[in-house]
Amino acid sequence: MPERTRVGVGLVSVGWMGRVHARAYRAVGMHYPDVTASVSLVSAADVNADARQYAADALGFATTTDDWRKVIDDPEVDVVSICTPNYLHHEVALAAASAGKPFWIEKPMGRGAAESADIARAATAAGIVTSVGFNYRHAPAVARIRELVRGGHLGRITNVRVALLADYSADPRGALTWRFRTEEAGSGVLGDLLSHGADLAQFTVGRISEVTALTERFIRERPLPSNASSGHFSLGSASAETGEVENEDYAALLVRFDSGAVGVMDSSRVAVGPHAEYTLEIYGTLGSVRWDFQRFNELQIADSADGYRTVMAGPEAGDFSRFQPGRGTSMGFDDLKTIEAQLFLRSVVEGRQVGPSASDAWSASEIVAAALRSDERRAWESVPTVEGATTFDS
Protein backbone atom coordinates (compact mmCIF):
# COMPACT_ATOMS: atom_id res chain seq x y z
CA MET A 1 0.00 0.00 0.00
CA PRO A 2 1.27 3.52 -0.79
CA GLU A 3 2.19 5.73 2.13
CA ARG A 4 -0.67 8.09 2.93
CA THR A 5 -0.54 11.75 3.91
CA ARG A 6 -2.87 12.82 6.70
CA VAL A 7 -5.05 15.74 5.61
CA GLY A 8 -7.01 17.45 8.38
CA VAL A 9 -10.14 19.17 7.03
CA GLY A 10 -11.77 22.31 8.37
CA LEU A 11 -15.22 23.34 7.16
CA VAL A 12 -16.58 26.88 7.27
CA SER A 13 -20.42 26.85 7.11
CA VAL A 14 -22.45 23.66 7.50
CA GLY A 15 -25.29 24.46 5.10
CA TRP A 16 -26.32 22.27 2.19
CA MET A 17 -23.06 22.77 0.29
CA GLY A 18 -20.92 22.34 3.39
CA ARG A 19 -22.61 18.98 3.97
CA VAL A 20 -21.95 18.02 0.36
CA HIS A 21 -18.25 18.85 0.84
CA ALA A 22 -18.06 16.70 3.98
CA ARG A 23 -19.73 13.73 2.26
CA ALA A 24 -17.40 14.14 -0.72
CA TYR A 25 -14.27 14.04 1.45
CA ARG A 26 -15.50 10.84 3.07
CA ALA A 27 -16.33 9.26 -0.31
CA VAL A 28 -12.92 9.90 -1.91
CA GLY A 29 -11.27 6.91 -0.27
CA MET A 30 -13.96 4.54 -1.55
CA HIS A 31 -13.84 5.73 -5.15
CA TYR A 32 -10.18 6.80 -5.38
CA PRO A 33 -8.06 4.46 -3.25
CA ASP A 34 -5.05 5.58 -5.28
CA VAL A 35 -5.25 9.12 -3.85
CA THR A 36 -2.68 9.02 -1.06
CA ALA A 37 -4.62 11.20 1.38
CA SER A 38 -5.94 10.02 4.70
CA VAL A 39 -8.78 12.42 5.45
CA SER A 40 -9.64 13.51 8.98
CA LEU A 41 -12.68 15.76 9.53
CA VAL A 42 -11.26 18.01 12.23
CA SER A 43 -13.36 21.11 12.79
CA ALA A 44 -16.56 22.70 11.45
CA ALA A 45 -17.75 26.27 12.03
CA ASP A 46 -21.30 27.60 11.86
CA VAL A 47 -23.20 30.27 13.77
CA ASN A 48 -26.23 27.96 13.92
CA ALA A 49 -26.17 25.53 16.86
CA ASP A 50 -28.26 22.90 15.04
CA ALA A 51 -25.80 22.97 12.13
CA ARG A 52 -22.88 22.47 14.49
CA GLN A 53 -24.67 19.52 16.11
CA TYR A 54 -25.27 17.99 12.68
CA ALA A 55 -21.59 18.45 11.81
CA ALA A 56 -20.60 16.49 14.89
CA ASP A 57 -23.29 13.81 14.95
CA ALA A 58 -23.98 13.13 11.27
CA LEU A 59 -20.87 14.29 9.44
CA GLY A 60 -18.33 13.18 12.04
CA PHE A 61 -16.32 16.33 12.69
CA ALA A 62 -14.22 15.99 15.83
CA THR A 63 -14.90 19.56 17.02
CA THR A 64 -17.28 22.41 16.16
CA THR A 65 -17.23 26.15 16.78
CA ASP A 66 -19.27 29.28 16.09
CA ASP A 67 -16.10 31.17 15.06
CA TRP A 68 -14.65 30.34 11.65
CA ARG A 69 -11.31 31.86 12.63
CA LYS A 70 -10.79 29.00 15.07
CA VAL A 71 -11.01 26.59 12.13
CA ILE A 72 -8.29 28.47 10.27
CA ASP A 73 -6.10 28.68 13.37
CA ASP A 74 -6.49 25.03 14.40
CA PRO A 75 -3.05 23.39 13.96
CA GLU A 76 -4.77 20.08 13.14
CA VAL A 77 -6.53 21.66 10.14
CA ASP A 78 -4.46 21.35 6.96
CA VAL A 79 -7.07 22.39 4.37
CA VAL A 80 -10.23 24.49 4.49
CA SER A 81 -13.59 24.15 2.72
CA ILE A 82 -15.27 27.55 2.32
CA CYS A 83 -19.03 27.17 1.85
CA THR A 84 -20.23 30.45 3.33
CA PRO A 85 -22.49 33.07 1.73
CA ASN A 86 -20.64 35.12 -0.88
CA TYR A 87 -19.94 38.11 1.38
CA LEU A 88 -17.67 36.02 3.62
CA HIS A 89 -15.65 34.32 0.86
CA HIS A 90 -13.06 37.08 0.58
CA GLU A 91 -12.24 37.36 4.27
CA VAL A 92 -12.16 33.61 4.93
CA ALA A 93 -10.11 32.79 1.81
CA LEU A 94 -7.53 35.49 2.54
CA ALA A 95 -7.21 34.19 6.10
CA ALA A 96 -6.69 30.64 4.83
CA ALA A 97 -4.06 31.83 2.33
CA SER A 98 -2.31 33.87 5.03
CA ALA A 99 -2.16 30.73 7.19
CA GLY A 100 -0.71 28.78 4.24
CA LYS A 101 -3.70 26.43 4.11
CA PRO A 102 -5.04 25.21 0.75
CA PHE A 103 -8.75 25.88 0.33
CA TRP A 104 -11.72 24.53 -1.63
CA ILE A 105 -14.13 27.42 -2.18
CA GLU A 106 -17.56 27.64 -3.74
CA LYS A 107 -18.42 30.01 -6.55
CA PRO A 108 -18.74 32.87 -7.18
CA MET A 109 -15.38 33.08 -5.43
CA GLY A 110 -15.71 36.80 -4.75
CA ARG A 111 -18.55 39.31 -4.97
CA GLY A 112 -16.86 40.66 -8.06
CA ALA A 113 -13.68 40.54 -10.10
CA ALA A 114 -11.70 42.64 -7.59
CA GLU A 115 -12.34 40.26 -4.69
CA SER A 116 -11.70 37.24 -6.89
CA ALA A 117 -8.40 38.75 -8.02
CA ASP A 118 -7.42 39.35 -4.38
CA ILE A 119 -8.14 35.72 -3.49
CA ALA A 120 -6.33 34.23 -6.49
CA ARG A 121 -3.28 36.46 -5.98
CA ALA A 122 -3.16 35.63 -2.28
CA ALA A 123 -3.21 31.91 -3.06
CA THR A 124 -0.41 32.33 -5.60
CA ALA A 125 1.66 34.41 -3.19
CA ALA A 126 1.19 31.79 -0.46
CA GLY A 127 2.19 29.01 -2.85
CA ILE A 128 -0.92 26.97 -2.06
CA VAL A 129 -3.13 24.86 -4.29
CA THR A 130 -6.85 25.64 -4.47
CA SER A 131 -10.12 24.24 -5.74
CA VAL A 132 -13.33 25.94 -6.84
CA GLY A 133 -16.84 24.48 -7.00
CA PHE A 134 -17.20 24.27 -10.77
CA ASN A 135 -18.75 20.83 -10.37
CA TYR A 136 -20.50 20.60 -13.75
CA ARG A 137 -17.19 20.39 -15.63
CA HIS A 138 -16.60 17.04 -13.86
CA ALA A 139 -19.55 15.25 -15.48
CA PRO A 140 -18.12 12.36 -17.53
CA ALA A 141 -20.15 13.52 -20.55
CA VAL A 142 -18.49 16.95 -20.32
CA ALA A 143 -15.07 15.27 -20.12
CA ARG A 144 -15.98 13.48 -23.36
CA ILE A 145 -17.05 16.78 -24.95
CA ARG A 146 -13.69 18.31 -24.08
CA GLU A 147 -11.91 15.34 -25.69
CA LEU A 148 -13.98 15.69 -28.86
CA VAL A 149 -13.35 19.43 -29.08
CA ARG A 150 -9.68 19.50 -28.11
CA GLY A 151 -8.96 16.41 -30.23
CA GLY A 152 -10.34 18.09 -33.37
CA HIS A 153 -13.12 15.53 -33.88
CA LEU A 154 -15.70 18.29 -34.41
CA GLY A 155 -13.45 20.22 -36.76
CA ARG A 156 -13.03 23.96 -36.30
CA ILE A 157 -15.40 25.12 -33.54
CA THR A 158 -17.74 27.76 -34.94
CA ASN A 159 -20.30 28.53 -32.24
CA VAL A 160 -21.34 27.63 -28.72
CA ARG A 161 -24.65 27.84 -26.85
CA VAL A 162 -24.87 27.74 -23.06
CA ALA A 163 -28.07 28.13 -21.06
CA LEU A 164 -28.60 27.83 -17.30
CA LEU A 165 -32.30 28.15 -16.59
CA ALA A 166 -33.65 27.57 -13.10
CA ASP A 167 -36.79 28.28 -11.08
CA TYR A 168 -35.37 28.57 -7.57
CA SER A 169 -36.44 32.24 -7.38
CA ALA A 170 -39.48 32.11 -9.66
CA ASP A 171 -41.96 32.53 -6.78
CA PRO A 172 -42.27 36.25 -5.94
CA ARG A 173 -42.98 35.20 -2.35
CA GLY A 174 -39.38 33.98 -2.09
CA ALA A 175 -37.75 35.78 0.81
CA LEU A 176 -35.32 38.65 0.23
CA THR A 177 -32.24 36.77 1.44
CA TRP A 178 -28.60 37.81 0.97
CA ARG A 179 -28.61 36.43 -2.57
CA PHE A 180 -30.69 39.38 -3.78
CA ARG A 181 -28.54 42.12 -2.22
CA THR A 182 -25.53 43.50 -4.09
CA GLU A 183 -23.50 44.20 -0.95
CA GLU A 184 -23.82 40.59 0.19
CA ALA A 185 -24.01 38.59 -3.04
CA GLY A 186 -22.42 40.82 -5.65
CA SER A 187 -24.16 40.01 -8.91
CA GLY A 188 -27.29 37.88 -9.13
CA VAL A 189 -27.78 35.10 -11.64
CA LEU A 190 -24.56 36.07 -13.44
CA GLY A 191 -22.37 34.98 -10.54
CA ASP A 192 -24.66 32.32 -9.17
CA LEU A 193 -25.34 30.36 -12.36
CA LEU A 194 -23.74 31.89 -15.44
CA SER A 195 -20.29 31.66 -13.87
CA HIS A 196 -20.80 27.88 -14.22
CA GLY A 197 -21.68 28.41 -17.89
CA ALA A 198 -18.60 30.54 -18.47
CA ASP A 199 -16.44 27.85 -16.90
CA LEU A 200 -18.05 25.09 -19.00
CA ALA A 201 -17.50 27.09 -22.18
CA GLN A 202 -13.87 27.87 -21.35
CA PHE A 203 -13.14 24.35 -20.09
CA THR A 204 -14.35 22.80 -23.35
CA VAL A 205 -13.59 25.43 -26.02
CA GLY A 206 -11.07 27.91 -24.59
CA ARG A 207 -10.81 31.43 -23.23
CA ILE A 208 -13.60 33.96 -23.76
CA SER A 209 -12.10 37.29 -24.82
CA GLU A 210 -15.02 39.65 -25.39
CA VAL A 211 -18.69 39.97 -24.40
CA THR A 212 -21.77 42.07 -24.92
CA ALA A 213 -24.67 41.59 -22.56
CA LEU A 214 -28.02 42.63 -21.16
CA THR A 215 -29.55 41.93 -17.76
CA GLU A 216 -32.98 42.37 -16.22
CA ARG A 217 -34.75 42.22 -12.86
CA PHE A 218 -38.21 40.75 -13.37
CA ILE A 219 -39.15 40.51 -9.69
CA ARG A 220 -38.21 43.87 -8.21
CA GLU A 221 -39.40 43.41 -4.62
CA ARG A 222 -39.57 40.46 -2.24
CA PRO A 223 -40.86 39.96 1.31
CA LEU A 224 -38.27 40.44 4.01
CA PRO A 225 -37.13 37.16 5.62
CA SER A 226 -38.98 36.10 8.74
CA ASN A 227 -35.81 35.13 10.61
CA ALA A 228 -32.03 35.02 10.34
CA SER A 229 -32.03 31.38 9.23
CA SER A 230 -34.19 31.98 6.13
CA GLY A 231 -32.46 30.36 3.20
CA HIS A 232 -32.37 29.84 -0.54
CA PHE A 233 -35.92 28.48 -0.88
CA SER A 234 -37.62 30.22 2.08
CA LEU A 235 -41.01 31.84 1.39
CA GLY A 236 -42.06 35.08 3.00
CA SER A 237 -45.53 36.10 4.06
CA ALA A 238 -47.70 37.91 1.53
CA SER A 239 -48.40 40.50 4.20
CA ALA A 240 -44.75 40.99 5.17
CA GLU A 241 -42.82 44.18 4.57
CA THR A 242 -40.92 44.03 1.28
CA GLY A 243 -37.49 45.14 0.15
CA GLU A 244 -35.82 45.81 -3.19
CA VAL A 245 -34.14 43.10 -5.24
CA GLU A 246 -30.82 44.70 -6.12
CA ASN A 247 -29.24 42.32 -8.64
CA GLU A 248 -30.25 40.64 -11.88
CA ASP A 249 -32.75 37.78 -12.35
CA TYR A 250 -31.77 37.22 -15.98
CA ALA A 251 -28.72 37.75 -18.17
CA ALA A 252 -27.96 37.17 -21.85
CA LEU A 253 -24.50 37.36 -23.43
CA LEU A 254 -22.93 37.24 -26.86
CA VAL A 255 -19.30 36.14 -26.55
CA ARG A 256 -16.16 35.77 -28.64
CA PHE A 257 -13.46 33.19 -27.91
CA ASP A 258 -9.71 33.55 -28.46
CA SER A 259 -10.04 30.78 -31.07
CA GLY A 260 -12.40 32.83 -33.23
CA ALA A 261 -15.51 30.89 -32.21
CA VAL A 262 -18.56 32.84 -31.09
CA GLY A 263 -21.23 32.00 -28.55
CA VAL A 264 -24.58 32.75 -26.97
CA MET A 265 -25.23 32.38 -23.23
CA ASP A 266 -28.25 33.09 -21.11
CA SER A 267 -29.35 32.36 -17.58
CA SER A 268 -32.41 32.86 -15.41
CA ARG A 269 -33.20 32.21 -11.76
CA VAL A 270 -36.91 32.99 -12.24
CA ALA A 271 -37.81 30.74 -15.19
CA VAL A 272 -41.15 28.98 -14.66
CA GLY A 273 -40.77 25.38 -15.85
CA PRO A 274 -37.08 24.47 -15.88
CA HIS A 275 -35.80 23.30 -12.50
CA ALA A 276 -32.13 22.98 -13.44
CA GLU A 277 -31.92 23.07 -17.22
CA TYR A 278 -28.20 23.61 -17.66
CA THR A 279 -27.22 22.97 -21.27
CA LEU A 280 -24.04 23.10 -23.32
CA GLU A 281 -24.03 22.88 -27.13
CA ILE A 282 -20.89 23.08 -29.26
CA TYR A 283 -20.93 23.25 -33.06
CA GLY A 284 -18.00 22.64 -35.40
CA THR A 285 -17.32 22.20 -39.10
CA LEU A 286 -17.34 18.38 -38.76
CA GLY A 287 -20.01 17.86 -36.11
CA SER A 288 -21.65 19.01 -32.91
CA VAL A 289 -22.44 17.86 -29.37
CA ARG A 290 -25.23 18.62 -26.90
CA TRP A 291 -25.43 18.02 -23.13
CA ASP A 292 -28.10 18.77 -20.51
CA PHE A 293 -27.39 18.49 -16.78
CA GLN A 294 -30.92 17.17 -16.22
CA ARG A 295 -29.85 14.12 -18.27
CA PHE A 296 -26.20 14.42 -17.49
CA ASN A 297 -25.32 10.78 -18.11
CA GLU A 298 -26.34 11.27 -21.76
CA LEU A 299 -24.59 13.00 -24.64
CA GLN A 300 -25.97 13.81 -28.08
CA ILE A 301 -23.38 13.62 -30.84
CA ALA A 302 -23.75 14.50 -34.53
CA ASP A 303 -20.77 13.66 -36.71
CA SER A 304 -22.51 12.74 -39.96
CA ALA A 305 -25.44 13.75 -42.13
CA ASP A 306 -27.64 11.32 -40.16
CA GLY A 307 -28.01 13.80 -37.31
CA TYR A 308 -27.79 13.19 -33.59
CA ARG A 309 -27.33 9.92 -31.81
CA THR A 310 -27.67 9.60 -28.04
CA VAL A 311 -24.64 8.12 -26.29
CA MET A 312 -24.77 7.07 -22.65
CA ALA A 313 -21.73 7.92 -20.54
CA GLY A 314 -19.66 4.86 -19.81
CA PRO A 315 -16.26 3.76 -18.53
CA GLU A 316 -14.47 5.54 -21.36
CA ALA A 317 -15.77 8.96 -20.27
CA GLY A 318 -14.01 10.92 -17.55
CA ASP A 319 -14.17 9.28 -14.12
CA PHE A 320 -17.35 7.29 -14.78
CA SER A 321 -15.71 3.94 -14.02
CA ARG A 322 -14.84 5.15 -10.52
CA PHE A 323 -18.55 5.14 -9.69
CA GLN A 324 -20.43 2.72 -11.96
CA PRO A 325 -19.47 -0.47 -13.84
CA GLY A 326 -21.12 0.25 -17.17
CA ARG A 327 -23.20 2.66 -19.20
CA GLY A 328 -26.87 2.97 -18.34
CA THR A 329 -26.30 3.04 -14.58
CA SER A 330 -26.40 6.69 -13.63
CA MET A 331 -24.17 8.90 -11.54
CA GLY A 332 -25.52 11.76 -9.41
CA PHE A 333 -24.75 15.32 -8.27
CA ASP A 334 -22.81 14.27 -5.16
CA ASP A 335 -20.54 12.17 -7.37
CA LEU A 336 -19.43 15.34 -9.17
CA LYS A 337 -18.42 16.85 -5.85
CA THR A 338 -16.54 13.65 -4.96
CA ILE A 339 -14.57 14.04 -8.19
CA GLU A 340 -13.89 17.64 -7.20
CA ALA A 341 -12.79 16.62 -3.70
CA GLN A 342 -10.33 14.05 -5.02
CA LEU A 343 -8.84 16.60 -7.43
CA PHE A 344 -8.35 18.95 -4.50
CA LEU A 345 -6.81 16.26 -2.29
CA ARG A 346 -4.61 15.07 -5.16
CA SER A 347 -3.44 18.67 -5.63
CA VAL A 348 -2.62 18.89 -1.92
CA VAL A 349 -0.66 15.65 -1.58
CA GLU A 350 1.11 16.03 -4.94
CA GLY A 351 1.80 19.75 -4.55
CA ARG A 352 0.49 20.70 -7.98
CA GLN A 353 -2.73 22.20 -9.29
CA VAL A 354 -4.88 19.51 -10.96
CA GLY A 355 -8.44 20.79 -10.37
CA PRO A 356 -10.32 24.02 -11.07
CA SER A 357 -8.22 26.77 -9.54
CA ALA A 358 -8.76 30.15 -7.94
CA SER A 359 -7.49 31.64 -11.19
CA ASP A 360 -10.21 29.74 -13.09
CA ALA A 361 -12.76 31.37 -10.76
CA TRP A 362 -11.13 34.77 -11.24
CA SER A 363 -11.39 34.30 -15.01
CA ALA A 364 -15.11 33.49 -14.74
CA SER A 365 -15.62 36.56 -12.54
CA GLU A 366 -13.94 38.76 -15.16
CA ILE A 367 -16.53 37.52 -17.68
CA VAL A 368 -19.29 38.44 -15.22
CA ALA A 369 -17.72 41.87 -14.64
CA ALA A 370 -17.41 42.48 -18.39
CA ALA A 371 -21.07 41.51 -18.83
CA LEU A 372 -22.15 44.00 -16.17
CA ARG A 373 -20.05 46.76 -17.76
CA SER A 374 -21.49 45.92 -21.16
CA ASP A 375 -25.05 46.07 -19.87
CA GLU A 376 -24.38 49.49 -18.32
CA ARG A 377 -22.56 50.93 -21.33
CA ARG A 378 -24.47 49.02 -24.05
CA ALA A 379 -21.21 48.10 -25.74
CA TRP A 380 -18.80 45.21 -26.33
CA GLU A 381 -16.35 44.74 -23.47
CA SER A 382 -12.97 42.99 -23.43
CA VAL A 383 -12.34 40.27 -20.85
CA PRO A 384 -8.92 40.69 -19.20
CA THR A 385 -6.50 37.76 -19.06
CA VAL A 386 -5.94 36.71 -15.45
CA GLU A 387 -2.74 35.82 -13.63
CA GLY A 388 -1.89 32.40 -12.27
CA ALA A 389 -2.57 28.83 -13.35
CA THR A 390 -5.89 28.25 -15.11
CA THR A 391 -6.85 24.67 -15.88
CA PHE A 392 -9.23 25.35 -18.76
CA ASP A 393 -6.31 26.07 -21.09
CA SER A 394 -4.15 23.10 -20.09
UniProtKB/TrEMBL annotation:
GO MF terms held by the record: nucleotide binding; oxidoreductase activity
High-level lineage: Bacteria, Bacillati, Actinomycetota, Actinomycetes, Micrococcales
SUPFAM superfamilies assigned to the protein according to its UniProt record, in alphabetical order: Glyceraldehyde-3-phosphate dehydrogenase-like, C-terminal domain (SSF55347), NAD(P)-binding Rossmann-fold domains (SSF51735)
Keyword tRNA processing among record annotations: no
Name of the protein in its database record: Gfo/Idh/MocA family oxidoreductase
Residue stretches making up the GFO/IDH/MocA-like oxidoreductase domain: 143-290
Keywords for the protein's UniProt record, in alphabetical order: NAD, Oxidoreductase
Organism of this sequence: Labedella endophytica
Domain of life: Bacteria
Domain Gfo/Idh/MocA-like oxidoreductase N-terminal: 8-134
